[in-house]
Design a protein that fits this description.
Elements (H helix, E strand, L loop, with lengths): L6 H21 L16 H20 L14 H19 L9 E3 L11 E3 H25 L18
Antiparallel strand pairs: 1-2
Helix pairs in contact: 1-3, 1-4, 2-3, 2-4
Length: 165
């Protein structure tokens, strides 16, 4: 067995975290309106929208699919936002199950927020980024909620995930 953590395991970890947050926020819907300020999000719901929409857009880019625009992204309710995550997860799993995929293939991202000399990435790196991006933001959300007096018991560390042994 290779000592590497696979993209399949990262997808499973990401999904595990997403299910936790959907369940937690469904049970505590008032928290969706809690001011947030992370990444310009006005409230928690807008932050969750960012997390799951970005996940989907990265998946669409990797798969060579049309990319959902910010304007097309639902603003809520939570179930519609979770649908973005489910669609991203399906894209990731479909790609990962296809042995013909070239994960070293380069994707060129011509975005103003990327320096021109760093706009080419392997598909593998982009997928790993998408999955770690979500985890980083979930940790920020857990900290925000704990500081606001709402501890979540989120155990988002990879160590606690059942996605890998």
């Amino acid at each position: 067995m290779t000592p590497a953590i696979t993209l399949e395991e990262l997808v499973a970890w990401d999904h595990e975290s997403a299910v936790f947050w959907k369940t937690y926020l469904e049970a505590n819907q008032a928290l969706l309106r809690l001011p947030c300020g992370i990444g310009g999000a006005m409230d928690v719901q807008e932050f969750v929208r960012h997390i799951w929409a970005v996940e989907l857009r990265w998946g669409q880019r990797i798969a060579g699919l049309p990319v959902l625009s910010r304007e097309e992204t639902p603003v809520g309710p939570l179930e519609a936002l979770f649908g973005l995550h489910l669609e991203a997860t399906q894209i990731f799993r479909t790609l990962l199950s296809d042995p013909a995929q070239d994960w070293d293939q380069t994707i060129h991202l011509a975005y103003d927020w990327l320096p021109p000399e760093t706009r080419d990435f392997s598909r593998r790196k982009v997928m790993a980024h998408a999955l770690v991006h979500s985890q980083r933001h979930w940790a920020q959300l857990a900290t925000l909620l704990r500081a606001a007096g709402f501890p979540t018991k989120f155990q988002g560390d990879l160590l606690f995930s059942s996605a890998l042994f």
